[in-house]
Amino acid sequence: MRIVFFISIWLLSFGALAAPGDIATLDRSTWPEKLSNPTLFDVASRAEILMFSSVLITSETLDEPALAQRLGLRTINMESINRVRAQLWHRLLSNYEFAQQSCDQDASFCFLVEDIATLREQAAKFQVSEDSFYIKWAEPSRTFHTRYLDEQLRKAALFPQTSSEVDHFGDYERDGDDMHDRLFLLTFDSAANALPDNSAWIAQYLRKSNIGGTFFVLGKDIQARLAEQSVSSLQSTFSQQCVGVQGWEFRSHSHWQDWQDSVRRSVELVKNKLPENFVPQFRPPDGQRRADAEAFFRTQGLQVALWDIDAQDGAGRLKGEQSAQRVLTLMLLWRHGVINFNAKQDAVKTSLPWLVTQTAPIGIGWEDCQNGFR
């Protein structure tokens, strides 16, 4: 009874009433143009930015009770939500300014936007006419961005009590927000996991494609691998790739008493066995970490490695091509960033090649994992 009581109190403390809604994904075939060059990337990017901005500004008309109900939560942290909304508007403006640079080559979705005020003005009146070339894309895109926004606002509503990648505790925590336009970093959670594990396949594919990705591993999984295979075999698996840590076990590092030991042990093991691949980055499982951890991470010389584009392929949530199309849509929206795939899900063997192939003609770059998070 005592356990049930504490679980009930814990759930109430986070205000949860219901699970999140459907995961956002968009069938890219609804977009009528093949993304065959950088200019067409910009056209699609402007369209996704305007659609998301339209959904975002509409959400701001909801009062707190209505927003809580929409997000399926009993209580919400409006201060956190407003902070995340402000961050979204600043990034949307910056991205739209980059996307506007090709308006002299194709004027589709080009409007006068000079600051956040004019972006909000355009977002408030944005619509796609019934006779538009892009009409088949419009409603599926609106649905996608509504669901995606709800994903972000729900995380913001629970932050910082339930930490996630939606916001930072300090500049020692990084995602891809400061990366250059059109530059993306591929990362893979749950690498070197007990079978099934696709780390070797992913790493080989990346090497063939001249791409360096960052694999985040658990200390206990590396220890288990080394009990079955040689160090040189493990090093061969991750050749030309980067390896960071997720701790010793995949569990929340926000309420775990031994979280510091978890990080130190895994870093020591990976740094010792994979010295050519190790990067001083800790990715918190499910993005959950403590708010007061800055001194520890700075002392350890570690960066908390978050992400801003989630493939949502963990636990089979989305199938391969669905996951890839979600990622591509978010690449168009955010124009740079850290992409998070799950290495133990077979979906990645479909989604990764699809994504690399689709993005080859559009002028994006893949960040060298050794450069770290910008």
TrEMBL record:
One of its GO terms (biological process) is carbohydrate metabolic process. Coiled coil: none annotated. Residues 178-303 form the NodB homology domain. Pfam families: Polysacc_deac_1 (PF01522). Residues 1-18 form the signal peptide. This is Polysaccharide deacetylase family protein. GO terms for molecular function: hydrolase activity, acting on carbon-nitrogen (but not peptide) bonds. It comes from Pseudomonas vancouverensis. CDD domains: CE4_NodB_like_6s_7s (cd10917). Keywords: Signal.
